[in-house]
Amino acid sequence: MEIDRNQQSSITISLCMIVKNEEQTIGRCLSSVQSLVDEIIIVDTGSTDKTKEIASKFTDKIYEFEWINDFAAARNYAFRRATLEYILWLDADDIVLPADREALHSVKSTLNPDIDVISMPYNLAFNEHGRVATQIRRNRIIKRQKNFQWLGAVHEYLEVWGNRLSIDAAVTHLPLSHDDGRNLYIYEQRQLKGEQFSPRDLYYFANELKDHQLYYRAIEHYQKFLDTKQGWIEDNIGACSKLADCFSNLNDVENHLKYIYMSFQYAAPRADFCCRLGHYHLHSNQMEQAIFWYKLATELETPGESWGLLNLQCQTWLPHIQLCVCYSRIGQYHLAYEHNEMAATYIPSDTRIELNRNYLRSMMDI
Question: Which residues contact 317 (CB under 8 A, 6 or more apart)?
Fold first, then answer.
């Protein structure tokens, strides 16, 4: 919808967070957003460190919530404590970088009050050059009066509707430690109780199993998820990707390839799957096939607004630098050089670029 930015006053925002033992990150998070928000709600689910002490430097609205193995229940409790027009939610290991903060200030001061939901990119990982490597989109700011609810005990999601606005300002995930197993424990306890898992539960339970390297159990649950034929298309594609990973870790090449190709049943080939196939054929010394798949990755349109996990490396520099390798191996040094320079437009300071450049110039007698 088109937004009339005339005569709009700044909206007010409540930040709502649930936390537990986040003393290493919560100060960093709150410092990054305190100028953006007008109220900070902290719901603590059982911290035994200095989390609450650090949070108290930013707000006096700190609440206790008895942990009941239900993330949605905790987040909904936090949302009920909010008092302002809009709610922003974050985790303690998230931050808003300066450029994104500036963009959000602009959104805040010009937002049409008819907007109910604002979605934002969520930067999950960066490469060694500081560029975003993986990203997903989340509903991040919502109108409080709509009373939107979180659903799901673990890997919860926010059920929203109404007028939506997608913006480019991002939240960045910067964890200092890995998952302690709490999510997996919740799923396993639910399974022991004989609970019936929804397709979404099966998918995210499988993700937890995979993350804990329990590959055979993960495969079982991904396959159960796909067999329901009720999954969201992006989760179906994600399951294919993760099944390929599982079988790769188990050195099962046949099934690794099977699930890469299965992803094409749900959508046109994505760049990351093309790069997977390019990698397989490159390491099988099948240059013609490798070049085909890497070239296809470079030719695919970059998706606009996407709610699936985006591997931005496969959409930018990676297939070009791999094509440089492929063409070099078959003696087509000019083509190799061209693709190395294309990769350089994305990662100019990468040491591989200059090494490739010097080698290829020598082979072309430049």
Answer: 342, 343, 345, 346, 347, 350
